[in-house]
Amino acid sequence: MRKIVAGVYQSLDGVIQAPGGPTEDPTGGFAHGGWVAPVSDEAMDAALADVFATPYDLLLGRRTYDIFAGYWPHVSADNPVGQGFGKAAKYVLTRGNGPLDWQNSHRLGDIDAVRALKEGDGPDLFIWGSATLYPQLFAAQLLDRLLLLTFPVVLGAGKRLFGPGTPAFGMTLISGTVTSSGVVIASYAPSGAVPTGTFPGPEPSAAELQRQARMARDDTW
């Protein structure tokens, strides 16, 4: 069985839209494309090199596929990322029937097709970008690892990693570091239901019980 691993660039407020450049994805009036390059550094490059060092295929949403297909086949022949993406099988989760012209590209019609692909043989499946995939993968419990690179910038609006439809779940930190430019690189694995609890303290006072009753009525005065 394969693993599904996501690599995500996000801002401090959780936006993942158009990290690569101003023209990458301006949908919704997004005006801050290209927010990764100014704070990229050697430590970040090294972390990504480790990811690309093992065999992989790609799992992409349609828009990210189009972005990649318009860029990566045209980089220099000695670009290691371009070489890897070119060789990898590209699996595109899409409801549309538009052409997939990039070599070794394959269409997946729904999340059940993703599940069947994961259960088959082959290298791990890496996701980059593809904001629409995450709520579906989280809900279906198909994501095995999340490599999250959080950049020291607040974007205010844009597509987000944990978008509508994302269920509640816990995560376990596998590894983490902070680069000299302030990028937090952390790897997580989903760990099931969200654990809850409370800190030790006295029994609730009359005032606290009244407050809880008001909150339950959504009446905070």
User: β content, as a range?
Assistant: 15-25%
Largest sheet: 8 strands, mixed
Shape, per Cα inertia axes: globular
Supply the number of helical segments. 6
- What percent of the residues sit in helical stretches (DSSP H or I)? 10-25%
* Sequence of strands across the biggest β-sheet: 4-3-2-5-1-6-8-7
Entry keywords:
221 residues, alpha/beta, 8-stranded mixed beta sheet, 24% helix, globular
Question: How does this model look, in words?
Answer:
The model has no long low-confidence stretch (mean pLDDT 92). 24% of the residues are buried. The chain has six helices and eight strands, in the order E-H-E-H-H-E-E-H-E-H-E-E-E-H. The protein has helices spanning 42-52, 62-69, 80-87, 111-119, 133-139, 206-216; strands at residues 4-11, 56-61, 90-93, 105-108, 124-128, 145-151, 170-178, 184-192. 24% of the residues lie in helices and 24% in strands. The chain starts with a strand and ends in a 5-residue tail after the last helix. It is α/β, with parallel strands linked by helices. An eight-stranded mixed sheet has the order 4-3-2-5-1-6-8-7, with helices on both faces.
Briefly, what is this?
With 221 residues, the protein is α/β, with parallel strands linked by helices. Helices cover 24% and strands 24% of the residues. The N and C termini lie far apart (54 Å).
Write the topology of this structure.
Layout: E1 4-11, H1 42-52, E2 56-61, H2 62-69, H3 80-87, E3 90-93, E4 105-108, H4 111-119, E5 124-128, H5 133-139, E6 145-151, E7 170-178, E8 184-192, H6 206-216
Parallel strand pairs: 1-5, 1-6, 2-3, 2-5, 3-4
Antiparallel strand pairs: 6-8, 7-8
